[in-house]
Amino acid sequence: MGLVEFAAAKTLASSAVFLFITVLLIAAARRTATCIALFTAQCLVIMAQIIASAFLYHSSGVLLVAALVLLVKVLAIPYVLLRISRRLKVSQNVSASTTPAQSVFIVAALILLAFAVVQPYARAFALDSEMLAAATAIILTGGFLMVSRKKALMQVIGLLVLENGIFLAAFTTTFGMPLVVEMGIFFDLLIWVLLMGVFIFRIRETFEHVDVSRLRQLRG
Amino acid sequence: MTLWFPLLFPLVSACLLLGFKNPRTAVRAALGMGIIEVLLLGFCGWNVWVHGVLQQGKYLRADGLSLLFLINLGLIFVVVLGYSAGYLKHIPKGRFSSSRWYYALLFLFLFTMIAAYLSANLGILWIAIEATTLASALLVGFYNTKGAIEAGWKYLIMCTVGIAFALLCTIALYLAAVRSGIPAGRALDWTVLMTAAPGMAAAHDLLKLAFVFIVVGYGTKIGFVPMHSWLPDAHAEAPAPISAMLSAALLNCAMYALLRLDAITSRAIGASFTHGLLITFGCLSLLVSVLLMIVQRNLKRLLAYSSIEHMGVVALGVGIGGPLGLFGALLHAFNHSLAKTMLFFTTGKVRDTFDTLRMDRIRGMARALPFTSGVLIVGGIAIVGLPPFGLFVSELFILMAAFSRHQYLVAVLMLTAFSIGFGALAFHFLRMLSGEPQAAPGKAKLLASEVAAICACGVCLLILGLHVPLVFSAVLHHAMAVLQ
Amino acid sequence: MKLAISLIQVLLIVGTAPLLRGVVARIKARIQNRRGASVFRPYADLWKLFRKEDLVPSTASLLFRLCPVILFAATLMAAAFVPVLHVSALLGDRGDFILLVYLLALARFFLVLGAMDGGSSFGGMGASREALVSALAEAPLLLGLIAIAVVSHSASIASIVRWAISRAPFVLSPAHAFACVALVLVTIAETGRVPVDNPSTHLELTMIHEAMVLEYSGPSLALIEWANAIKLNLMLALLVALFVPWGVAATISPVALAIALLCYLLKIALLAVALAALESSVAKLRMYLVPEYLGTACALSVLAVVFTAFTR
Is A220 within a domain? Predict the structure, then answer.
């Protein structure tokens, strides 16, 4: 076994753990900039995993997907998010409705839930249960972030985390969808983030705050 | 190339339209391009009709079901374009709020929906449906008021989350297909999946879970209760023609995706589970929306809840199943889009005249706006399902299907909901129409294009109500054949 | 021979403790664009303090003089548990990790007691804060160690380390990873570093450790400071031994021991740089946010314990 294969195998074996740690840290993070950095770190782990499996299973086509992840999720989206958060000039606090410790406890519970949920499917389809659990846990954490964080930007980050989980689920279960589909999904995601940026600025201009939980003009 | 032209032309026109700084020329250019696009669609539809199925390349495909929905989309789009010409007078300030942006986004919206109808691949279908949200979000927030921004935000967040679940289920379907031996590159193709579906029964549990996500995911976009909360907001805050587009074209587009996935899943694991789920969501949407219609204050919200009601009816038709139920459901989707377009067109005039859409503040509409009131009455009669309009026929079909398949409880629920909905609409409409107008109504000039747009909808509805033309019924049967 | 090695290990921890402090302070100074004091400065400080007169407040009892000695002794005992060069530490096979944790707790208890005995208001304030922090830090520390003990099927530090060395490198089990993060968080709190406490401030609003030792002087102060430095060294060495023990000698041979020493110095140096970087980049938490911080550590360690069920 060559050194590259060895490193690739180790990366694959340990990336689930790193993903768990990123979601826990995102839950504990207190500032939006930290959240963006952690999201980027999560995408980097996913990218490393994709590259590792490309080496292990000798499928160079997958490297293209890794390049896409690098371009869109590691570079473009964090850049846009950081720009939005800088230009917004509002406080960096994530204004969560749960304290960091509570969030970490909840996310820990979600991770366990994910483990419990994926066991039968992992067994039925002979999949890596740890990776599948990581994907599910990321999806659940994304949902949790969207529910518990009031800042508009944090909702965007929550959904991006959720999407990361779905992407990871696709990758671990099926080794990625066809390349055209992946490209389309990434394109949609990028446009979505830009649009959300437009709306966040409009919210700030019109309502003079970015607290989404206080948007309640429309009822009934 | 027959499929590429109608698909790409809206995209090209959207880019071109951004170049027209002058509002008047933008309107004219948009009208011209719209007519060309409809001609292209017609040509494409004719080819599909002649050949049965058209497949171009790996990713483009049109069959009977696409044809039906494309006809619907083309009709609604041209009508909306005609109505918009007179409607866009007050353009608010804002970066994306100008008539060239309006038309560019409208064409982009059209492009995404056509892409959904023409895609042969479930992954591309998902991408197109998500893109419809993206293309229409700025249109929903066009007015830049507090309400419009909130509605646009909610729309973007809720639909994207919902659609994300649909992506999850698309992946599950892909997994099931790959594991049953289909090569990975083709495992999302509609034809491949339809032929291979019976062999995927091994992944029974996974497919069941996937279908729940499908209904929740695409159901968010369709507006099924309880995922509907974006829908009234978006419909109420968007400009009237966009509300019509959302209600008449977008909801149908999401329904189309649901129909496709339902067909595959039903074939793989049997229809009892999938159709049971559709009936559950249909009943829930129907009942909750008619009850909420009673308490609405805003005219457009009222109409939006009525859209939820009718989407519930369509889901019930599909869920009850059988040739009769499916025929009724497809016809109902078509009819509803026409009637709802007509009703949303009246709201523009109402807002111009009374400066509000609050129904408790509108009095004496019959005197102030005779033509619009007439349209409101005709549209109201059509939408509650009274003869001689098309919705009567399609609802009758679905009810007959329910009785013939011994779904008595569903039938009773439907009848109850229809009567409540009728009561709610009659109460609200009659209150607006009667009485004396409070202030001197502003001059509201009717443009020929608006009248033509509204009349076109009315005439189609009337024809479909009196007798479904043989050609159209053949199109419907083609569409049904695709799903069965 | 084994005994000699064990004694050398204890002496290494105790002897290099002031040096580690000096190194961290120096790196911190460099990161902040200062020149900083010599890395041997803490030795000079200790030497100076040992030669000075020991002043005792008039209100204090005998306890005040006794506490620094007990503190130092307990910390020294704890240091004897941690393997540095060779897998078997002086007491590594005799006591388990619970004894280690409670030796540290004993040391802290007497420190708090002494601070309160001094009779100044700052002492009492610092003592109450220290009690709060240590009460909150105890659960994650213990739970994190329990998780590792369960995974490695042994309770004594030496056998845990042996098990860790025998494992293939870079195989992360979730239980291990969570325990590691939790213990790192706890270590920072336990040793009084930023963001929980700032070792280089005398600002009355925020100080914890410095408030407690305000009344001490001369040899007593020297003992306390030395014990504190040993504690930092020992916690870092413990982290190294539990999570990255590669290089530690399994046999007693000069080559193996030399490699072990080199590895140890390298790892501690890396940790010192990391610690200095962290302290320079993170702001100190307000006191009421410290429970939050330790709550996070606690959640992680609970998760680690639960995950031991998944790790076979």
Answer: no
Q: Is A30 contained in some domain?
A: yes
Going along C9-74, which residue ranges are E strands?
none
| Contact between C141 and C183 (Cβ < 8 Å) | yes
Instruction: For residues C299 and C86, give the distance between their C-alpha atoms in angstroms, rounded to a whole number.
Output: 33
Enumerate the H helices of B2-63 as residue ranges: 4-17, 23-51
Determine the residue of chain A that is closest to C176 in CA distance.
Answer: A17
The number of distinct structural domains making up chain B is 1
- The tens-digit pLDDT sequence of chain C (312 residues) is 778 888 888 999 999 999 999 999 999 999 989 988 899 999 999 999 999 988 888 888 889 999 999 999 999 999 998 888 888 777 777 778 899 999 999 999 999 999 999 888 888 888 999 999 999 999 999 999 999 999 888 888 888 888 888 876 666 778 888 899 999 999 999 888 888 888 777 776 778 888 888 889 999 999 999 999 999 999 999 999 888 888 888 788 888 889 999 999 999 999 999 999 998 888 888 888 888 889 889 988 988 898 887 765
| Residue A209 structural domain | 3-89+98-214
Alpha-carbon span B274 to B283, nearest angstrom: 14
- Total number of domains constituting chain A: 1
Query: Which residues have CB under 8 Å from B115's CB, separation 6+?
Result: B7, B124, B127, B128, B131
For chain C, the chains sharing at least 3 beta-carbon pairs closer than 8 angstroms are A
- In chain B, % helix, strand, coil (3-state, to 5) comes to 80, 0, 20
Domain spans in chain C, listed from the N-terminal domain onward: 2-311
What is d(CA C187, CA C308) in angstroms, rounded to the nearest whole number? 22
Instruction: Record the tokens describing residue B25, joined without a space.
Output: 């020329």
Any A CB within 8 A of B124 CB: yes
Give the structural domain span for B471.
Answer: 270-484
Cα angle for residues B96, B98, B99 (degrees, 5° grid): 130
ipTM entry: 0.93
Q: What are phi and psi of C156, to 5 degrees?
A: -85, 145
Q: What percent of chain A has pLDDT over 90?
A: 44
CB-nearest partner of A184 from B124, B138, B150: B124
In a domain, A177, yes or no: yes
pTM over cut 0.80: yes
Chain A neighbours (≥3 Cβ pairs under 8 A) are: B, C
